[in-house]
Each structure stands twice: as structure tokens, then as C-alpha cells.
Design brief:
The structure holds three protein chains of three kinds. In chain B, strands 4, 5, 6, 7, 8, 9 and 10 form a seven-stranded mixed beta sheet that branches. Helix content of chain B is about 40%, strand content about 15%. Chain B has helices at about 1-20, 40-50, 60-70, 85-90, 150, 165-175, 185-200, 210-215, 230-235, 265-275, 280-290, 295-300, 305, 330-345; strands spanning about 30-35, 55-60, 80, 125-140, 160-165, 205, 225, 240-245, 250-260, 325. Mean pLDDT of chain C is about 85; it is low at about 10-20. Chain C has twelve helices and one strand; from the N terminus they run αααβααααααααα. Classes of the chains: A mainly alpha, B alpha/beta, C mainly alpha. At the A-C interface, β1, α2, α4, α5 and α6 of A face α1, α3, β1, α4 and α5 of C.
Amino acid sequence: MAVTAATAALASGPSPQRRAGLGPWFALAPMLGWLLLFVIVPTLMLIVVSFSERDSLGRVIYSFNIENYLRAFDWKWLKILGISVWYAFLTTVICLILGYPVAYFIGRSSERVRGLLIMLVMIPFWTSFLIRTYAWISILSQEGLLNALLMTLNITSAPIGFMYTPFAVVLGLVYNFLPFMILPIYTSVEKLDGSLIEAAYDLGARPARVFGQIVLPLTKPGIAAGILLVFVPAIAMFAITTLMGGGANPTIGEVIQNQFTKARNQPFGAALGVLLLAIFLFSLWLSTKFRRGEED
Amino acid sequence: MKKQHTKLMAAACAGALLLAGCGKKDDTLKLFCWSEYVPQAVIDKFTEETGIKVSVENYASNEEMLAKLLAGGGAYDLIQPSEYTIQAMTKEGLLQELDQEKIPNLKNIAPEFRNLPYDPGNKYSIPWMAGFVGIVYNAETVTTPIVGFTDVFKPEHAGRIVILDDSREIVSWALATAGIPVNDVSDQNLATITPMLKDWLSKVKVYDSDSPKTAMSNGDTDLGVVWSGEGALLFAENPKFQWVMPAEGVHMFVDNLAIPKTAQNKDKAEAFMNFILRPDISKMISDEFPYYNPNAEARKLLSAEQLNNPASYPPGFDVTKAELFTDIGEQASKVDELITTIKVQ
Amino acid sequence: MTDALTPVPPAKRWWLPPGPAVQRAFFGGWTITVFAFLYIPILLLVVYSFNDSKLNLYWAGFTTKWYTLLFGNEVLLRAFRNSLIVAGASTVLAVFIGTTAAWLLYRYRFPAQQTLGLLIFIPMVMPEVLMGVSLLVLFVTLGIPLGYTTLIIAHTTFCFPFVLVGVQARLQGLDPALEEAAQDLGATPFKAFWMVIVPYLMPAIVAGALMSFTLSFDEYIVTIFTSGAESQTLPLKVYGMVRVGLNPQLNALSTLFIAATAVLVIASQFFTRKKTT
């Protein structure tokens, strides 16, 4: 799976590790403290809530029962989870295909142009997500720009329903996650030694070969990072999927969100969230274990 | 250049943290309301006339407000709950009783809004704006007569419908069509309406509670079961969007102002309530948000155009006949699960 | 460092096109297409900021009234300023925590290293509503009043893993000789880090900073649960606007922001150029 390969690629690589002395421990303390207080404690709270019940108002009654987890193992939630994972997977693949050449081009450009281009990649995303998405809706809708263009050019005679389809969902997701694929790959490309590539050409290698055997392997860490930074958050996404997809195919993010709002069932939402986290962390752990085993 | 940036940012950071640490002015009125529902002009005018400063926090749904309130976030003086939330909160004793002597302008509210089932006698809340859930359709593309839900969910309209993404609402329409009271969401009644819901939802293209007007305006759908505010905006944009009150039964919602138990400035909150009940102020609200204004005196000040918007003030509709939601407590979860299941199948 | 424009001797096989030039054209064309894809909705947004209609659906005539209204809209401007402050502070913190943590994890062997590596991912995959509510409960329990502090803490928490992952990737290709050389010349580990490693990591740090800022600037769910009255950010105002139609003043605001940033970036490029000549 994409994620496991990505983490494996990141975890590998030679690193001259030394035993941590007092100094490094001290330096790591802020992050440890942060993780402990603002990540682990909330996660633990979540686990506690997931085993609780709620009253009619939706307030949590702390207790211990596994009803929420039992309820979660129902085909409909699993189907929803499956759909979310599928969307995330598609998004990651398309982002990779679209984004890699861009990252390569920017990374291999002259130093001055590089900085400018990489900023230009980001700037569209400093507008409000809602305005951007509604702009897409007005482009893709039946009376929108794309259909108007297609009909004016006589490519189609009737408007096509682009909106509220899986196509629209994936487009929305790809649009929002593309920079998160481009940036990490760019940092890998940026440190490529041009002379290495030039030498390969001098020796008569064809572009495809140079690419496949030299460039791609050297940029593997960047690709791995990009995959992680897109695939992982994409699974829990909900706002874009609802807006572009029309809500007919709820995602796991939407369902969890709903539990905290309309359904007034925080414990069940927490249980689903914990399961999501568990699945992800488990597959990560498996991948590093697998990799370690391989190295031995 | 990076170093300079860092220094600047650090300075801004420190400054912000200092400000945050500064003692909070406790005599500010803390308003927790919908993002677009209280015109800034109204707030400014209140401060101008009374000298009371107002700090505003926003939310985009009742449940978000409730979740934050229950989790202990912020001692708000005023909140803006819908009718079923008021009922749920009073049951748990989360609202303060109003001192009606401080709110004499309450008399401006039309009598049909003075004794609503969720808060008889306005003990805990004053009505802000009312609205309905009804049907909007594009008269240019829909030529068959539309009088109710059954007409909307006809086979010829499959794939051209937008409805609210609200399980409680959707279920209530099915209940009304089946002749069952909308608040009677027992498991048995839910089972009765499930086939109807399956049939209906298979024809829906878009679910949207935030801005269903988008799908209608963009031509992606021809019919919608939406909030009256959305219908009013569509009608004002283009009269081809006709509004119909469903024959099977209409649900009315009422948004209100209320004072939570943890409020620290009750008298200032009541002053604000009294302020917005003034006809001229209430008119300001109506000018910006075309919902049904429960303030009879304010309605006298509205323009003919405003009063003629069929989604804001449905002609010939008897408001006392509209059904209001009551709190259904834990059944909310079952209702949500039913709709999710049908969507996923 | 050579770039792809340096002339290359003619290909040994005449029937092959000269590698780098064709490659550059291909990648260049691809990049332009993707940039077009990225900027199309932005262009639309800018155009609608001059549109004489409240609902951004069709063209109704040219006007600059949204810009004039924007300058009088204190609420919106204040929210925008808050977003900048919070995003800026969160980015600084996230970069600091993420970079140092990535380096330390790479360089030194800590017990339970693997577990640490996994825990870092939690904020990335935890649904925002879960993080928002649990952080709110945490802050309330600890008695921290909701405001800039809590908001920045919350934002930093989900931002720093993005920086960390990016820096980790860059570290994979680090030549250990680099650090050794610095230490041979008498530098302490800290100095070696600062003078040698950080410049090497700079592209990853910048990339991480850009991602953090973007994530924080537009964050709604976590913000709603962890902010106070004075720290209301732009998304909080914007998300509630959908019901009555997104105000074109937002378009005006976005247009100005984009224009300002673009001008800043281009100007800074010219500035650095002048310095080297």
C-alpha cells in the first residue's frame, strides 16, 4: 500500500545515530512536552469518551462499555470508510502524477526562479477554502463556465453534469492537496547534483533511463513524504467531499463530524475516530517492522 | 531575510500573547451567535446608545454552539439557539429565566409567537426570526404542478432535486406525508416511513443545508426542499424560482435569543434583548435577512416588496398551523443513522 | 551547480533528440498546465470581486464597490488580521518544533524512537472535530482562557507534523561528512547544526513553513472550539456567510492579499539579485 511504502522509504536510509546525551534530551524536551500535553492527552481523553455513553442532550456520561465499538463494526460504516480510503488513494495517485513533473521543473530551475515559482504554487491556497471551492462549483455546474465553453466550441450540445459526482470530489481533493505533494518532492529534487545527470547524458543514456534509474530513486524520500502528507489527511477530509460530492456519498470524516453535531453522539464519534487512528497507526507500525525485518 | 522574518513573527507572537493575558473586561456583553444573523449595524447602534461594549463569537450550527457551551468554552451572555435546542436546554436547566420587566418591548411580538410549545410565556427566550422549510422549484424547467413533497419526488424529477442535509428534517417530511406527527420519531414510525425515504432519497442529487440555493441557481437541480431564507434569496434573484408551502405539512423553525446559566452579565443581555425588540431595530434585521419577522410592530415598517416575497411571508399561510420541532433526545442518533444507512445503500 | 540549460554535447545517437532540451520543454509545458489548473478558480475569484452582484454566479456589471465596502468592514479586517497573527505564530512554532525534532530523531538514538515516530502522525490523521473538542476540554480543565494562546497551541499541534515529515525526507540525503567536517573544524554539535545543517535543510524548512501557514490560515473546525472572542479568525466569519451568499468583499480581500503577496515575493527576488551583483 502507498502509505506503508512511503513510511518505509522515509524510515530507511543511512543515519549515523549516536546514543542521546543530556544535551539532545534537553533539546527534544519541547517536542516531547508538546506531544505529551497536546497530542497524547487529548487522544487519551478521546479513548475515554469512546467507552462512555451520552445523555439526551448529548453530554458525555463517563462509564465503561464497548457498545460504541460493537456498533462501529457494521457494514455501513466500513463501507463509508472504504469509500474514504479509495478517494484518498485516487487523490494521492493523481497528485503524484500531476505534481512530480512540476516539482522536478521547479527544483531544476535557476535559483532565482525557483523561489518565485515555489511561492506561486502556494499563493492560491491563501484564499479562503470556501471561496475557492465555490469558484470551482461555478465552473463545473451545468450553467457554469466549463459547460459554456464546451457548448460554444460545439464539443457538446447539452450541458454535462460535472458537479456532485465522484469526479468532482476527486477534483476538489486533488486541487487542495496538490501543493502538499509538490513541496516535499521539490525539496528532494532541489538537492540533485546536476553533474550526475549531465554525466549520464554524456555516457549516452536516454532521458527515460536517466530519469528512471537516477532521478527517481534519488527523489524517493520526497515522494514518500508527499504521499504521506496527502494520503493521510485526505482520509479524514469532509468539507470538500460534501461540497463537491453533494453529500450523497458520506465520507468517514463527515460521519464523525455528524456525531458531534446533529446526531449528538460524541462517544460513537470518538469510537470511530479512535478506530481510524488505530488502523492508521497499526499499518504504519507494520510497515516499519516489515522494513526492519527486510534489512536483517 | 529569514532571520528578520522570524524576529518579526516572534514579536507579533509575544505581543499577541501579552494581549491575551491581559485581564478581560468583564462588563462586555458576550454574544455567541450565527455568523450572519446579527447585523453589525445593530450591534454598533446598541453600543452607541447604551455604551455597552459587545464582543461577538460566531458559530455555524446549533450543535457547534451546544458542543462548545457544554464543554465549558467561554462564559457567554447571549446565545442564539433554535427552538428544539431551547427545549433541550431548559430540560437540563441550562438557561436562565428572563426578567420580563426588563424587556418591556416583548409586547411587540405577535401573539402567535408568545406561547410556543418549546417556551410557553417566553420564560427563557425571545424569538429572533422564524422561517419555514418548503419547496422551491424552477418554473421554467418544471412544468407539472407542485403542491407538496409527493410531487417533488416524482420519477420524472429523479436526479434533479436538492434537499437539506438534515436527517431530522428529511424524516419529518416523510412523517408528515404519512400523516404521522413530526415529533413522533419512535422506532416503529421510522420503520413505517423507511420505504418512502428509500424511494425519495434515490432521486436526490444534492444534500446541502448550508447553501442549497447554489445547486438551484447553477441549474444543477430544478427542485429543492430548502429553508425559506434560501427560497427568498432565490426569488429575489429571479422570479422563475417559485416557492410552495408543502400541502402535507409545513415545519416552522424559530431562532431565539437566550441567556445561558453561566452568563455573567444578565442585565446587559436583557438590555440587548429589549433593544432588538424595538420595531426600528427589528426592521434593520429584516432588511438584511429575509426571514419571517415575529415582531408585529416591525412588520408594519417593512416595504411592500419585502412583504410580498412568498418565501418570507407565505401568502394565505396560517402560522399557527405550522408544526414546530420538539427535542427528540437520543432518538436523534437513530434518525441520523437511518438516513446515513439509506444514503450508503 | 549546473542547471539543465548548460549546452550538452550532441547525442551519440543522432536519431535521439537532445535529452535535456526536450525534457525541459516537456516539464515546462506540464508545469504551465498545472499552474493554469491552480489559478483558474483564483482568476474567477478576482473577476467576481469586480462583479456588481451579491451572489457570485453571473456577471452583472463592473464595480469597485466591494473594495470600498471592505475598507469600512472592521469586523472582516480584524478577522483577517487575527488569521495572519495566528498563522504566523503557529508557523514559527511549528517550524521550530518540527525541524529540531526531525533532526534530533535522525541524529540520536532515543528509547522508544519508533513509538515517538508514530505518535507524531496522530495530529495529521485525527479528524479535526475530535482534536477541537478534546483540546477544548483540555484547556478548560487546565483553566486556560480561550484566546490567542489556545488557538496558536491548537494550530501548531496539527501543523508541526507536516514540517517534521518534510525535514525528515530532506535529511535522508544528508551527507554525514558534512557534519563531521564542521565538527572537525571545532564546532559544537549545536553550532554544527546551526551553521551547516540548517542551511542544508532550508528548502524543506521553507516548504514546511509554507504548508503550515496555509493549513493554519484557513482552519475552521479546530478554531471554533479553541478560540475566544478577540481571536475570531477569518474562516469563522466566512463559513457562516454561506447561508446568505458569500460576500464579494471576501473576493476583494482575497484579491488584495494575493496581489500583495505576489508583489512582495517578486520584489524580494529583485532585492536578492541586486545583493549578489
